[in-house]
Amino acid sequence: MMKRSPLWVAVIAAALVSTASARADGIPPAALDAVKKATVRLRVFLGNGKIAQGSGFFAGEPSVILTNASTLGMLDPSSPPPEKIEVNLDGTRPVEGTVLGIDGVANLAAVRVAGDDLPPPVKFGKAAGVTETQDVYILGYTPVKDREQGKDLTVVKSSVSGLRKLASGVPSQLLISGGTNFGNSGGPILSSAGDVIGVASNTKAVPQPAIPAEAAANFLNGRISGLTVDLAFKDGADVKVPYRVTVVDPLKKLKSAEILFWVGKPGPQRPAAEVEPKPAADDFGFKAFKVPLDGSAQVSGELTLPPRPDNQSYWFRTTYTDGDGKNHWRAAIGVRPIPVDRTPVTLTYKPKAVGYVQLTNDAELKLREPSGETHSLKMNVHPKFREQRAGMEAPVRFVHNYTGLDFSINMDNEPMNKAGIQAMIQQLRNVTADVEMAADGGVEKAKANVNKVPPGPREDMQIITDQILQSVDLMALPLPSGEIKPLQTWKAQRVIDIGPSWASVSSAVDVKFTYLGVSQQGGKTLAVFEMKGPLKTKRGEGINVRGNLDGTVRVDTETGEVVTSRLSVKADMDIKLEKATWTGHGEVAMTLTRSDTPPAPAVPKK
């Protein structure tokens, strides 16, 4: 179900970037001719019946085409592939392509085609040496009229606006002054010397971000893109730590990968490196665990570790050898897990009269217009409120009084409507919420009262408070009766809005709760639960939603109240905006912390 407001209308308005074709005067003819032959026109038949258009080019190895993941409608590795990919050689000779893999963060995809007389793959240059105002050339199949891609290859002249780099110095974004559109999105970007230094990406942002050649080469050579360390549990004298490693390896070139472990002092993340990092002087207990690469996008397992010494952290770093034999060391993370004991527990919901809650809700929605234009919408809602029990009789009712709110909304990484946001935040003191809890600790019903808010910001405040209350509902835990045994499961249904509230899509979730065990934290005994579930489209809404919810809940064994809760949601969807269907990928991350005392006031920034 779509939600719109005056603020959302302001957010969705943006300016189009025009393109202009030019001759590639400075490129050596032989180099230009080779890249032109390697550049293809794409028509992608999506699952929602729409046809996406774009460009791509042969790269990496014979028969492999590189393009944008957004052109394929795949903004996450879990996204379903398109129904058909039509690859037009020379713009007019169609062959069918198959998805090999994507990198949603880099917006890259690899597609394999079969056939005779295919162009050889191009070789990548480097974006690292470019300078501002340097001429560059974008190859692809630009539109001849609105939403119709031309069949003739064009070369669009542009210039370098800047180059963004990671902390390691590796280029992360090549900024150009313009020239990309849905037709040439995914096409190669050439320097005047004829080197492929980037991949075009269609966006309305100015300057336009493109993908540097280094990121494209890393994608095709294979890499480890993430490590997630899950809840630790005791196993006799040892500690077991479940892990998940995210793999980006479309051509199956990745040679090896390991998780490096050691014990050391707590501290900030240690940076990634291209040469083996030296350990700190007080690091000890080094171990290396081989990651079993099986061709899947995610590899999971368990690490058996010694008990963590007091005042020390477990440290983890992934390292891998790519298809070119080059070694990489990703950033190291330090964690101080409190392992659970897998013992039975009996819980009863009997909440305290007063509590103080801090909540975070960070939502991002990546959108792709029917024209191929891509956008990113982000919203961060971080409220604080005091909950006061209204009477001691059943049912349990609470009144929420809001004491603070950090709020921001961005479109394509640009802050939106700051004045309107500040006006709305100032009205927070006029808002309360009534929440009725079920006997098992779940939320029975909840409603915000915004009648004291002036008419101007009232509608937006209603949407924000509804999202806050939905977060409270999602992160509550309905307790089963009687003794709960380790790994016991039960289910409940929830509803979640994916994406920023002004452009959200509602989805039903069949949540499965699993009891994991108990741990000691802050002088309390906490029961720990896992929550997981698939997303599905709400009946009768005509919008397709696919995705999953994943989270952890900790409950005070004395009161049955949720003390901390964390969940994340990822989903692909079709969204109807302005009489057209857009494809989207949404992610939501939420946390809730409940305490007996009010949080310390924030320290003013200097």
TrEMBL record:
<feature type="signal peptide">
    <location>
        <begin position="1"/>
        <end position="24"/>
    </location>
</feature>
<protein>
    <submittedName>
        <fullName>Serine protease</fullName>
    </submittedName>
</protein>
<dbReference type="GO" id="GO:0006508">
    <property type="term" value="P:proteolysis"/>
</dbReference>
<dbReference type="GO" id="GO:0008233">
    <property type="term" value="F:peptidase activity"/>
</dbReference>
<dbReference type="InterPro" id="IPR009003">
    <property type="entry name" value="Peptidase_S1_PA"/>
</dbReference>
<dbReference type="Pfam" id="PF13365">
    <property type="entry name" value="Trypsin_2"/>
</dbReference>
<keyword id="KW-0732">Signal</keyword>
<keyword id="KW-0645">Protease</keyword>
<keyword id="KW-0378">Hydrolase</keyword>
